[in-house]
Design a protein that fits this description.
The chain has 78 residues and is of the alpha+beta class. The chain has 3 helices and 3 strands.
Length: 78
């Protein structure tokens, strides 16, 4: 699992329940728009990301991208 500041609140999305999800503990490596690479982790309380934006807002486009990719198409359009 990636190294995250423990004071961050995990990102939660209405269209996915991460509690007990089979991907809890999985880390995805996501390329950033400026050539950086970030790590997104799924926890039982939501998603965490190593990007600076997540540190400010507790949500970012990287966590949303992963959440949308692992939810069936008919649900991710919500």
């Amino acid at each position: 699992m990636a190294s995250h500041n423990k004071t961050l609140r995990p990102a939660k999305f209405d269209f996915i329940n991460t509690k007990g999800h089979p991907f809890v503990g999985v880390t995805w490596h996501i390329p950033g728009s400026k050539g950086n690479s970030y790590e997104v982790d799924m926890t039982s309380k939501g998603f965490l990301c190593t990007c600076m934006g997540f540190g400010f807002r507790s949500k970012c486009k990287h966590t949303l991208e992963i959440a949308r990719k692992i939810v069936p198409e008919d649900v991710s359009d919500l």
